[in-house]
Amino acid sequence: MKICSKCKIQKEVECFNKRGNGVQGVCKVCQESRPSRIAYRKSERYKQNQRDYNKIRRRKSNAWYLEKGYGVTIEQYNDLFQKQNGECAICHKPQSEMKLQLSVDHCHTTGKTRGLLCQRCNLGIGFLGDSTTILQNAIYYLK
Fold first, then answer.
1. What dihedral angle (degrees, nearest 10) is formed by the CA atoms of 39, 41, 43, 48?
2. How far apart are CA 24 and CA 92, in angstroms?
3. Is the N or the C terminus of the chain less surrounded, counting Cβ atoms within 10 Å?
């Protein structure tokens, strides 16, 4: 005998679905009367809850990544963003025209933050090894 956690009625163990080595806490009758998970997941309420949760999770993970990777807080990032008028420090393309947010550019030897760059400029400097000599050679080559 087992007591159903929903209807609180004592029933035979056969009235419960199996789970692992035992049985579920809710009887088969109460289980069938529950609204289905599929219907709930299709509901607008569930979708809105997921959007809200994902937005909060992205904000938290972004703050953690900035702090852990670059030693920059969200406030410091926002200050840099305001100083640069929301655009890349090299090509001056505004954040609103980009799919990704501006990256924190830092010196790989000192770890000092230099500014915020778009993905292309950040990768370009990285591929050139942060070398002003190579960058000057590239400028000379392009001319």
1. 170
2. 60
3. C
Q: Which domain holds residue 111?
A: 73-143
- Give the residues across from 94 on adjacent strands: 87
pLDDT digits (tens, 9 = 90+) for 94-106: 988 888 888 888 8
26: number of Cβ within 10 Å: 17
pTM of the model: 0.54
**Domain final position from 71, 93, 121:** 71
Give, to the nearest 10 degrees, the angle between helix 74-83 and helix 44-70: 80
Domain of 126, CATH number, reads 3.40.1800.10
- Taking the alpha carbons of 41, 44, 49, 52 in that order, is the dihedral positive or negative? positive
Please determine, for residue 72, whether its predicted confidence score (pLDDT) is greater than 80. Answer: yes
- Does 143 lie in the same domain as 89? yes
